[in-house]
Structure formats: structure tokens, C-alpha cells
Amino acid sequence: MSTPLQIGLVLFPRVTQLDFTGPLQVFSSVPGAKVHLIWKRIEPVASDSVLVLMPTISFADCPQLDVICVPGGGGTEDMINDAEMLDFLRRQAPGAKFITSVCTGSMVLGAAGLLKGYRATTHWSAIDFLAAFGATPTKTRVCVDRNRVTGGGVTAGIDFALTLVSLLLDRRAAEAIQLRLEYNPSPPFNAGSPDTAPPEVLAFEGEDRILASPPQRVDWASGGEAWLAPPDFRNRLSAA
Length: 240
Prior knowledge:
This protein is 35% helix and 17% strand. By secondary structure, the chain is of the alpha/beta class. It has one domain: Class I glutamine amidotransferase (GATase) domain (Rossmann fold, 3-Layer(aba) Sandwich). It has a seven-stranded mixed beta sheet, sandwiched between helices. The protein has a two-stranded antiparallel sheet with strand order 3-4. The chain has a two-stranded parallel ribbon with strand order 8-9. Helix 1 packs parallel to helix 5 (156-168) and helix 5 (156-168) runs antiparallel to helix 6 (171-180).
């Protein structure tokens, strides 16, 4: 009997649930795959919505993963400074076939030193910050650079996961999963990217994000000392 493919998605407080539930649905259709939801402890984890999540395995008990995926969300602002999270990623990385992220999860990979010298993408609102981690920001839905595969914001997680399945198995397997999920997007509005959204929508979203910005993010932008990212990152935030 062949060894099952070990795929792990990391959870954390205030994770954006669609960042990982989209990929989770795709990965759960991979034949023979064992999919893990990972956190420090087996305890409920609050997402950034009403959904509360239950990990299936702890950092300490997690096997060596073939694929490790870090989703994004407001909680990445804490995970970038979380020694347990960063140590877990660094321990897993050398033995993983693919090191991946969705949305601002790429910032956590960057904080762990796992994107230096790689092209990577993230949510459009954070793309300019990737360079501070030694990555080359790439404005694309999915970015593949050797064994680093990163997805753009939130809904890009499905595109990311299907792309990854094509690399793990083959294109036909990925297309079969896409058909099974009836993933045939036809959005009602052409406002899903800063490149296509109307100016008034861009202005509204920018104002909304500033009003909803958590205090810690404001502290970083004003030079707060809690930040554990590369030394010049606070300066980049201040200049942004």
C-alpha cells in the first residue's frame, strides 16, 4: 500500500475561512491524500467570521508534510510574530515537497524566512510588502516558483489548489476535481481586482479597510517595536 500524501493547512485565530476551505475542498478530493488542519493545540479556533474551527492535529503531533499551506486573514498580523508558528514552519519546510500559502499567509512564510529568493503573490492590498521578506512580488492569481506555490487573495485559493494538484498528480486529475466541484466562475460584477474595480469602489474599500484596521497594524505603520519581520519592513510600512 502506498504512503498517503500528507497535506496540512495551518489554522490560527482570525484566519479567513475561505482562504483554507476552498483548498480544503479541493485537497479532500485527491485520491489517497491525508489532509490535516493544524494548530498549536486541539481546541476551537475562531475564524474571522462566525465559523469556529476545530483542528485535527497539533504542531507537536503533526507528521512530516508533503504539502504545507498557510492561509491568510487578520490573524496573520499575530502569526508573523508567533515563535511557535514560525518554528513549526521552519521544521516542516526542509522535508516538504511544496511550501504554499493563500492570501496574506505568504507573509507568515516570509517571516519564517521561506520566501527569500522566490517569486510570490498575496492579496492585492499586501503585495508591496513581500519584498521586505526577500521575495519578488508577482501580481498574479497563482505564482509557482520551484516548490513555492502562493495564491492571491481569498477566492484565489481554489485556483491555487487546483494548480497544486496538477503539480502533485497531473492536469487531468485537477480538471476532474474542478468538474466535480463545478468550479466555473462567472462573477456578477467585474470588481474583483483593483485593475478592474470602478474608482468609487476602490475608494470605498480603501476607506473601509482603514476604519476597520486593528490597532496593532496602526502601531506597525507608526514604527511599533513588536514586529519581528526583516529590519527594513517597518520603514516600508511607514513609507507605504
